[in-house]
Amino acid sequence: MDCKRIVLLAGHYGSGKTNIAVNLAMELKREGKSVVIADLDIVNPYYRTKDSQEELAAAGIPLISSAYANSNVDCPALPQEIYSIFANKENYAILDIGGDDRGAYALGRYTPFILEENNYEMLFVLNQFRPLTRTVEDTIEVMREIEAAAGIRFTAIVNNSNLGVETTADDVVGTAAFAEAVGNAAGIPIRFTTVWESIYEGVSAQMEQVVPLHLQDKRLWRS
Amino acid sequence: MADKVLMKGNEAIAEAAIMAGCNFYFGYPITPQTEVAAYMAKRMPKIGGTFLQAESEVAAINMCIGVASTGKRVMTSSSSPGISLKAEGISYMAGCDLPALIVNVQRGGPGLGGIQPSQSDYFQAVKGGGHGDYHLFVVAPASVQEMVSLTAHAFNVAEKYRVPAMLLADGTLGQMMEPVVLDDLKVEEHDKSWALTGTKMEREHNIINSLSMLPEELEQWNIDRYKRYDMMEEQEPMWEEYMMDDAEVCVVAFGISSRVSRNAIMAARANGLKVGMIRPITLWPFPKKALRAAADKVKAFVTVEMNMGQMFEDVELATRCLKPVLKCTRTGGCIPTPEHVLSVIDEANKLGGEQ
Fold first, then answer.
1. What's the distance, Cα to Cα, between the start and end of chain B in Å?
2. Contact in structure between B283 and B311 (CB atoms under 8 Å)
3. Which of B114, B175, B337 sits opposite A220 (nearest CB)?
4. In a domain, A91, yes or no
5. Residue B232 and residue B248: Cα distance in Å, rounded?
């Protein structure tokens, strides 16, 4: 996959940023690129990049994450190692930003380094089935709040519209027009559409630029 | 526009409350229920409602007493340690006969505990928590969809009987995302002639109060309140029976534990064991009659809960100890695995005669 050196994933909380971040890092690694992944989510301690640390380690992808993540210290701290991303320009870096503007504030302190190097893309992860991003107007509001908090503009949209395990190929295809409308309103393109690998064939038969995601499903129940 | 939306349990509670006519929310952040407050903060200003992050849990519950006194629908939410802080206000609310909804997205305890899911506030929810003779109407959803319908139902029942209601969820249900249909809820209208709305010099003034220095008067208030509790015990228990027709072992589980149990029951059935489940949906009033009836049919019960065995005691009581009750418990933020549940089902199946 062709991408800039630094890929920033931000969006409404629960839009799928973490899952996409892990999958993108895996894809870049498979292509033989040197990549690191950083967890900047200091808002929500449930479902975070660190949950996938074993899989990432097995793939040889360094994870930069707060020493306090998933620990007894419920402390919103960022590790100093994040600065290595901006110092070491040989590596690709995927940055998983916390949800909404509250999560994006943490990115703000690194924004000067990102803008100075100017080899980044800032992707807005969109799920039309989430209750607060169902209209173009509401979605643009969330985007603008995140941009204001992070001090950086979005460069493209990732359409990750899904209804969880119930998602059908038609559900995803049906959101393409909405994603397009959000992109037009924001003046940015659709980077790609992400779908669970189980419906990848059904979606990619009807759309272009579709990326399959492998989901880490650790639930103890099926129904 | 899609009919279904993908919601976190915490968001579903908040949106359902708004759809059920709740325009007032007071709360204080605590993991794992913070999204309830975050969602309310976004939505309330857009519908002309009130969101207020109080200076503490104690302040939030007392703000709820104020709004509830006017007959408006009001809600607060927290997680285990925060509910303990609210306990005084909840008791005052019960003593004042005020309807309101208190949401507890439980985490491990006691004390500061952890932030992972738990069901260890069962006793606190159904046996008091605050002081005095009182009950809450307690509902325990097992899916994000049920968080929608039971939020509205809890408001309805609270108003019907003038009691505070509690929605008892856990960190898993609060954080997990499932597709939901939002209009799956009913809003009832109940008498509010008791509310403090201003007399306009046209009626006697109403009094909302839990203080009486006259023992006989205070006793009478309690007796009157217990008449309403008796009606609730008669009319309001809710439960779901799963594969109980021919069951010889009955699993009893609520909330997320029932989801795990369902998988264990399917596995047990595949092994030829006759297992079913009674899932209490209301924890108070407890579905005593359903359990008592099951005690005549099955040879043993298994309670599956994320605590050291709290509902277990109510199952023994409801079944009058007619059949053995086995515990399958995890606590501290751990979730039982289907394999663990299956092993206790196996044990229960060996009881009560040669097989």
1. 56
2. yes
3. B337
4. yes
5. 30
Q: State pLDDT tens for residues A69-82.
A: 777 676 778 889 99
Domain count for chain A, please give it: 1
Q: Which of A46, A75, A133 to mutate to test the interface with B (most CBs of B within 10 A)?
A: A46
How many angstroms separate the CA atoms of B233 and A206, rounded? 56
- A128 contact residues in B (CB cutoff 8 A): 2
Q: In CATH, what number is assigned to the domain containing residue A75?
A: 3.40.50.300
B1: pLDDT strictly greater than 50: no
How many angstroms away from the CA of A205 is the closest CA of chain B? Answer: 22
- Contact: B31, A162; criterion CB under 8 Å: no
In contact, A216 and A22? CB cutoff 8 Å: yes
The residue type found at A181 is A
Q: Do B2 and A129 touch (CB under 8 A)?
A: yes
User: How would you list the strands of the sheet with B249-253, edge to edge?
Assistant: B239-242, B275-280, B249-253, B300-305, B325-329
pTM confidence score: 0.93
pLDDT, tens digit, 9 for 90 and up, residues B230-275: 999 999 999 999 999 999 999 999 999 999 999 999 999 999 999 9
In chain A, what residues touch B4 (CB-CB under 8 Å)?
Answer: 129, 163, 166
Interchain CB distance below 8 Å, B178 and A164: yes
A203/chain B closest Cα distance in angstroms? 17
Residue A181 inside a domain? The answer is: yes
